Every structure is written in C-alpha cells, then in structure tokens.
Amino acid sequence: MNYSITYITVLLFLILGTPQLKAQNQTGEQQNYVVLSKNIKQLKPILMTADSLAEEDGETYGEFQVVFCGKTVQDIKNNADFKLLLKQAELQNVTVTVCGLSLNAFEVDQKQLPEHLEVVENGILYGFQLKKKGFISLTI
C-alpha cells in the first residue's frame, strides 16, 4: 500500500508538472537592451556586444537600442566610419538614435545626419522610458 501511494504521487507530479515546465520554457521573456552613450566611437564595441548577446540569448533576444547624447552629435555629420557602422547596425536590427536636445544645443541640423539614424526629442528621457518598459540599460 505504501508503494502505491508513492507511485501515484510520482505519477501525478509527472503528469501535472511537465506541461507547466514546458510552458515556462516556451514563454520566456524577451531580453531588451538600451545603451546611452556620449561617444560615437563606442558604436563598434556596442555592436559587437549586441551580436554576442543575440547569440547568448537565442530566442529570448529582443530589441537592442543605442542612444547618443551630448557633444558627440557634432561628430556624426559627414562621418564615413559612422555611416558604415550604421549600416552594420541596421543589418543587426540595432536601432541607433540621437538626442534632439543635443542636436539643438550643439547646432547640428537634422538634415545633415545620415539615413537610418532616428532622432528622439530627449535622449535621457527616452532611455528612462525604455528602462520602465523593462529594457536592461547601460550608460557609457
């Protein structure tokens, strides 16, 4: 009789517990990332990091965004190296944005910016908004 109770208990755990474990594995949350940077020269290592995280996270890899703020926005216009990295970012599905407040502060016309570069009104606020949405954030 003692063995019967043990077998029934184990059988119930297997039957009832297995679907729940499978559901947990299939509904893993997306890992989303945002990097706020004050130096456009950081884009290359940021893209390398995004690539590594995409491989590491597998199916749970979500969005990766980069926001540039500060004086570095002056270095964006007519920068061939940065344009190449933007194309690489696009291939990696990494969104690169620039802070509109910084553009205004350092008198950079949005028309001088390369294609595929998004402008957000306030880069710092945008970073906080993404963090509130669950993005893992890093400021460099």
TrEMBL record:
The keyword Translocase appears for this protein: no
Pfam families the record matches: DsrE
InterPro entries: DsrEFH-like (IPR027396), Sulphur_relay_DsrE/F-like (IPR003787)
KW Signal (keyword) present: yes
Highest taxon of source: Bacteria
Keywords: Signal
Annotated signal peptide: 1-23
Name listed for the protein in its UniProt record: Sulfur reduction protein DsrE
Organism: Psychroflexus lacisalsi
